[in-house]
UniProtKB/TrEMBL annotation:
Coiled coil: none annotated. It comes from Amphiprion percula. InterPro entries: Ig-like_dom, Ig-like_dom_sf, Ig-like_fold, Ig/MHC_CS, Ig_C1-set, MHC/Immunoglobulin, MHC_I/II-like_Ag-recog, MHC_II_a/b_N. SMART domains: IGc1, MHC_II_alpha. It is a single-pass type I membrane protein. Residues 1-15 form the signal peptide. The keyword 4Fe-4S does not apply. Keywords: Adaptive immunity, Disulfide bond, Glycoprotein, Immunity, Immunoglobulin domain, Membrane, MHC II, Signal, Transmembrane, Transmembrane helix. The lineage of its organism: Eukaryota, Metazoa, Chordata, Craniata, Vertebrata. Residues 100-190 form the Ig-like domain. GO terms for biological process: adaptive immune response; antigen processing and presentation of peptide or polysaccharide antigen via MHC class II. This is Ig-like domain-containing protein.
Length: 233
């Protein structure tokens, strides 16, 4: 059984509002994580495989740079692993606490249009320990291409949240599913999502056409009687 140690602390809180800048460090015997978040959005994380810092920030915000961030992350990772050994020795007879995730939520990122590329999002929260395993299917067949999942994000109650994404092109009748596996679950939690679009019907268009025709006839008749009235006077 893998034991994880997660440390999370607040770097700063703005007095003008509820703005939080968090730093999260986590480790196991073979892996590690270090990231900075702003308003619960990831703005920097350490890529220990490629030995560099990554700044996944959108173009429309003022870019935030963490000078020396990767070197600091490496040092914190070593401290985390040492603390993990100490905690493991102290807690070897304590049963592992396990909280299952709530039912996953699936929603589309953009308005669904047939044949137009979109993203399905599977939101999983409330579980402990991290992580969860998320898998996708399309019409009952497992899908791996175009899938991704973010790092576990700590909630204020000590549980975690993870979000998985699936790039897809919606076609009428397609059915997708998101399945979540976790240590606290006896069987996966699965949520279904099917492609639904609202196509314009013939009935409303015909009704509007008839209404417009009647309206034009009414205007023509009114104009005719107005002219006749003027001639009589």
């Amino acid at each position: 059984m893998k034991l994880l140690l997660i440390l999370c602390w607040v770097l700063g809180v703005s007095a003008d509002g509820q703005h939080e800048d968090l730093a999260v460090t986590g480790c196991s015997d073979s892996d590690g994580e270090m990231m900075y978040t702003l308003e619960r959005e990831e703005v920097w994380y350490a890529d220990f495989i490629n030995k560099r810092g990554v700044e996944p920030q959108p173009d429309f915000i003022d870019h935030i740079t963490y000078q020396g961030g990767y070197e600091q992350a490496v040092a914190l990772l070593q401290i985390c692993k040492q603390n993990l050994k100490t905690r493991r020795a102290a807690m070897k007879d304590v049963p592992l606490e396990k909280d299952p995730p709530s039912s996953p939520m699936i929603y589309n990122r953009d308005k669904v249009e047939l044949g137009v590329r979109n993203v399905l999002i599977c939101h999983v929260s409330g579980f402990y320990p991290a992580p969860v395993n998320v898998s996708w299917t399309k019409n009952g067949e497992k899908v791996t291409e175009g899938t991704s999942i973010n790092r576990p994000f700590p909630n204020k109650d000590g549980s975690f949240t993870q979000i998985s994404r699936l790039d897809f092109i919606p076609q009428q009748g397609d059915i997708y599913s998101c399945s979540v596996e976790h240590l606290a679950l006896d069987q996966p939690l699965t949520r279904m999502w099917d492609v639904e679009t609202t196509q314009p019907g013939v009935g409303p268009a015909a009704f509007c056409g008839i209404g417009l025709t009647i309206g034009l006839l009414g205007v023509a008749a009114g104009t005719f009687f107005l002219i006749k009235g003027n001639e009589c006077s």
